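Lay summary. Proteins are chains of building blocks that fold into shapes, and those shapes determine what they do. In this project we predict the shape from the chain. Here is one chain we studied, written as its sequence of building blocks.
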Amino acid sequence: MPTTAPAFADATASDGALRRFLHGLPGVDAVGLVARAAALGTRSVKTTAKAFAIDLAISMIDLTTLEGADTPGKVRALCAKAVHPDPTDRATPRTAAVCVYPDMAATAVAALAGSGVKVASVATAFPAGRAALEVKLADVRDAVAAGADEIDMVIDRGAFLSGRYLKVYEEIVAVKAECGDARLKVIFETGELSTYDNIRRASWLGMLAGADFIKTSTGKVATNATPANTLLMLEAVRDFRARTGTQVGVKPAGGIRTTKDALKFLVLVNETAGADWLDSHWFRFGASSLLNDLLMQRQKLATGRYSGPDYVTVD
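And here is the predicted shape, written in a compact code that computers can read:
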């Protein structure tokens, strides 16, 4: 059943109504957007604030392995790292989740039992999304049946780019219905949407269809999360909550590798959506290598020494 907020029920009544709504959204000032993202990226985070921000960033990571060569052993090792990112310092926060393919979800669920770390699973023919709806829904059912707490789905970018917005909306609604208690992250693959106007439209489309999170990318294309596209999505969730009372999370994924980058994104969150989103329930980093750099910078703050890459595990 569609989960559109009552205030926007008419917007999804037909393909034409949805098109009029999405194309009626304010156009994006691309130059202004990029300039604001760049300006916020110059904010400095130091000393105790930096230590707090590093721990917050660690707690927001969806530690991810999405490779054809994934094995149960690799997934279990990643889960162990998610629970104790730094075995020498048990005060290090756990990551938010481990993200795997559906066939590895049961392995991750068993490895993370009782830890509080969530299991996220990509689905709907990730990363291309080129499959029949029934195949996509079966993918979701498999992941949910295996115990996944969160589902990361990809939209049909071909349908979106050809203007078949209602098809995309109805697929998200159908996937949401299969999620049960699992939270749904909707991936737009912003690098393939061509324009900032399309990213804004996709953000609103995903939220109207019931997304719990909107997510930039799969991490499998050349252009993934950027400060500008994440800023735009943060503006969308802020405005959506102002109009509906419903809060939606944001997950930039792909290309965020350093502590410096992560802190820039946290500034974007605080200054755009607000402090309510500075929590792993509402903001995530889709990353693998980012955690290692955060751990090294964390140790440097604690000891004054930079340990180098041998200090952390190779994922």
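What the prediction tells us: The two ends are 40 Å apart (CA to CA).
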